[in-house]
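Memo subject: From amino acid sequence to discrete backbone structure tokens
Action wanted: Derive the backbone structure tokens from the amino acid sequence.
How to read it: Take the token row as a discrete description of the fold.
Attached in line: The record itself begins immediately under this heading.
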Amino acid sequence: MLSEFENGAPVQQFVSRFRSYSSKFLFFPCLIMSLVFMQWLISIGPYSGYNTPPMYGDFEAQRHWMELTLHTPVSQWYFRDLQWWGLDYPPLTAYVSWFFGIIGHYFFNPEWFADVTSRGFESLELKLFMRSTVIASHLLILVPPLMFYSKWWSRRIPNFVDRNASLIMVLFQPALLLIDHGHFQYNCVMLGLVMYAIANLLKNQYVAATFFFCLALTFKQMALYFAPPIFFYLLGTCVKPKIRFSRFILLSVTVVFTFSLILFPWIYMDYKTLLPQILHRVFPFARGLWEDKVANFWCTLNTVFKIREVFTLHQLQVISLIFTLISILPSCVILFLYPRKRLLALGFASASWGFFLFSFQVHEKSVLLPLLPTSILLCHGNITTKPWIALANNLAVFSLWPLLKKDGLGLQYFTLVLMWNWIGDMVVFSKNVLFRFIQLSFYVGMIVILGIDLFIPPPSRYPDLWVILNVTLSFAGFFTIYLWTLGRLLHISSKLSTDLRNKKEA
């Protein structure tokens, strides 16, 4: 298998310094220290809502949830002060917020999370504490399963240098680092739990995989992007090569147990009143088809056809559901028919891209979900996939530019994007002439739009024109990536089908 880094990229040169037997044990400590150093460099910059009253931003939302869970009875977590960053994530997020709030309140400074009076509180010490919680979460929850995934696929990339060069590029993907450690969120927790589920699928530990994925769902509802592919994969393992009804029952019990465990306080107190409120807060359909400008089908279509003026909210929900089901159906069917480990990442990627492009209530930051399974394809050691994986990462961080620019993270954006592409020699193109033209066109488009956005003010009549150009190009790119993941999934599954048919005939 050819390496993605056959031309000696800087990341490969870095890893090669640890290839000797006496130095290999130093590689992972140095890698972790480098990752933490990069996270802190990004964290020095501003965050979402910095010094922008009255509502501030995501930083204040996360801080407020620590305050809320610390001073409010559990039964009121999803009822209190809904106008001031009311809790709108599932209970595991609330538990984590409570845990960090306890640490900050009792071990550092109670003023940070004082009831009501701490709203909008900003200080260097609080920023340091909050940033530290994200970095710790990233290292403890996301990094270990990514390392395991890379190691599991190492049999296809036996070379120490090439294998770990791929791991570095996955760990340093710009979009996630900029959103979690710049803008400020805890996406690394949800993505880490999803990766733990995938890691356990690789080990055939289906109950553990189900448990971790349920935890991901109870941390952030956006993990639903992965629910159909993991369901059909697990269902496939229950019926192929023979029907295992006991496994299906065991997995079903695991789902019920995990959700019951997480929701137990609300079930115990008053499930008839409290559970509907949690669902209402977690799935706010009344907010509309999308928020802000997001590079999905509906927001892009709205620039030329005002769909929200033609269809009712309920009609849009039904239409988006139909489009989403159509987009994810092929990958789900393939994972059911061929529950093979080599199809996992591609199946997850294809289905989650379909969700991002066509589902209801999409945020621009949701691109991090399909980007994860797309990025870990680097660990599979196939040189032909690198141009598409690199394009997906560059398009993803490009689509986040309006948000990061608003946050004042321009320096971090350009530094990290340029560094990531340079150390991994990521701006490469497919040998296929058509694919090469498509990839080159998207890179040129991104450079042109960024240049216009930086140096030319938009027309006063169309203040969002540059953002709309960004959204349109990003959607076209994401749809292309979706088609690529689906096409590759179909190609590999057809080869599996042929191999199985030949074995039966033999």
User: Anything to note?
Assistant: DSSP finds 21 helices and no strands in the chain. The chain has a mean pLDDT of 92. Residues 10-51+122-243+284-505 form one domain.
